[in-house]
Amino acid sequence: MRQGWRWFGPEAPVTLDEVRQTGATNIVSSLHQVPIGRAWTEAEVRERQAMIETTPPGRSRLTWSVVESIPIPDAVKRNGGRAKAEIEAWIASLEAVAACGIAIVCYNFMPVVDWTRTELDHVIDTGATAMRFDHEKFAAFDLFVLRRVGAEQQYSREDLTRARQVFDAMSETDIAEITRIITSALPGSTTEPLTIPQFRERLAAYAGIDAGKLRQHLIEFLKAVTPAAEARGVKLTLHPDDPPRSLFGLPRIASTANDYAALFEAVPSEANGMCYCTGSLGVRADNDLPAIARRFASRIHFAHLRATKREGDGRTFHESAHLEGDVDMVAVLRELVAEDSRRRSNETIVFRSDHGHRMLDDLNKNVTPGYPAIGRLRGLAELRGILYALGAQPT
């Protein structure tokens, strides 16, 4: 298995030399500066690739192995195959990536909002901070800040009462902060920052689009782009919904094993794969993570390895340390190692320690939310230890 590290580009707080110090060898990156929907050019991709892969004297080599992500425009999610111009632009970006020899592309199909949290620096019992999704705070935002039409019908009476109490206890600063976190797009998001009025408009545009319709739009997208990926030796990896359930009344269709099975059945091409994210899938107690890894082993080309801890009834959760929480990481890695051993060296699974606690000196620094250096380094070291114990030397 290949050790990856997400790098957000030259403006990121973590430098490439610091990435080398973690032991990671494979970079996961994207052209975040390119507007969503505009086709990437080969020149732009090569410029970023040269930045990553030009090795200074005396330094270890880094390889850009995974593009995470080429954003899928909202028009594709709403219109499927009818969004021809947007799909053609996406294929052009894929072709630019493939021309540079990058063979894994990650993407997601979450409508309006990408991965979602309500707190970025929740203090845990060690004194470090973790990202957290608080269901009650989310409901308070949905009902009383966003004031989404029809939202009250999707919450229980108890939820409504508790959300009102939480909202009434919020200061103006609290309201501004949760609004910023939810609407401004977290790092790596492939959705656009929105104002509250824009948010309402975007939600309204999904009226009449249920899970079946959204899934059909994804299938239409895959049928259009998979031949291009297949012809160029690129593996497409769909990231799970995060969290893996409906938010704001929107459908989500990459949350369970059955969701992925439906997509693989509809588009059986070997280029149609998954990004196996233990943190996202692990939020649901009904997702058996080792069984999912075993079932879809040949489809897994990229893995996000992190753990989450469900709280209360499971709708609230926080990011735990990589070997804690609700993810049996040893069992998961045993399945991935078994699959990896069957592959050629240039087709092994790229994994990265995903997210991480803000801890030690990172508490005093400007860090990318969810992507501090030290917390991810701890996670990578722990994952590497499991791999060695399983007899698999990571590369």
From TrEMBL:
Pfam families: UxuA
Listed EC numbers: 4.2.1.8
The protein's required cofactors: Fe(2+); Mn(2+)
InterPro entries: Man_deHydtase, Xyl_isomerase-like_sf
Residues in the signal sequence: none
Gene Ontology MF: a single term: mannonate dehydratase activity
Keyword vocabulary terms for this entry: Hydrolase, Iron, Lyase, Manganese
Tagged with keyword Lyase: yes
Pathway participation: Carbohydrate metabolism; pentose and glucuronate interconversion
Gene Ontology biological-process annotations: D-glucuronate catabolic process
Keyword field contains Iron: yes
Catalysis: reaction(s): D-mannonate = 2-dehydro-3-deoxy-D-gluconate + H2O
UniProt superkingdom: Bacteria
Family from the record: Belongs to the mannonate dehydratase family.
Function recorded in the entry: Catalyzes the dehydration of D-mannonate.
The protein's name: Mannonate dehydratase
Gene: uxuA
